[in-house]
Amino acid sequence: MIPFAYLYNLDLESTWDSSGKTLLExxxxxxxxxxxxxxxxPKNYTHLIPDLRMPVNARASGTPSTLRDLLTGVPFERPIxxxxxxxxxxxxALAPATSLPRVTVITTHEDARAKKDKKRKQExxxxxxxxxxxxxxxxxxxxxxxxxxxxxxxxxQRITRENCASLGVPNYFEFITxxxxxxxxxxxxxxxxxxxxxxxxxxxxxxVDNAKTFNRKGEDVYDMAxxxxxxxxxxxxxxxxxxxxxxxxKDKK
Length: 253
Description:
Blueprint: H1 23-27, H2 30-38, H3 67-71, H4 85-92, H5 109-123, H6 125-138, E1 142-147, E2 150-152, H7 182-190, H8 197-214, H9 220-252
Antiparallel strand pairs: 1-2
Helix pairs in contact: 5-6, 6-7, 8-9
């Protein structure tokens, strides 16, 4: 295919650049130029003009017989500019890499949580232990405490002077001076506010004692509070037994 888009409207044989060469010589276009000069246009070529996609004038003076004659005198949209070899090389050069490409590893939510817990355990074993205890205690449910048809726990909700009436205990602060709940304990553990296991235990038994103070003996919440304290003590004992077994296994190695 003849690249006439580069050739029309140029006096290529007499146009010289700074090196003293014609444009034909400069761009090695003599063969294509000769083909344009030797080509014969069909008699019905005028209907092809719109498809050339350039501002040609098909009704120029005379009757063009070759493609070269057809394009002679047609204004070119922009002048041809000669670029130096250094300019062309700079334009196509790739910027040097400054760092290695970043690799994104896609992990599941469970993987991310496991890695986060492992890091926490290594950095602060007490905090990790208390978070595990608080998470287990928050997951404790009671069949006699139903919320929307499902077993739940009365120790999850933080009770304040602002919400006690809406929770059905408007006189709560007539009996309780320091409220506490398992959700608050979990947040405290997450923020590292407990410096010892005993501090965590004091808050846990504050939850238990508050429930036993506000509710009468034999009532459901009273019994649930006792079960909550018992569950905590059992969890602590289980942790101690497990830690002892791990220590013995490590000593054997």
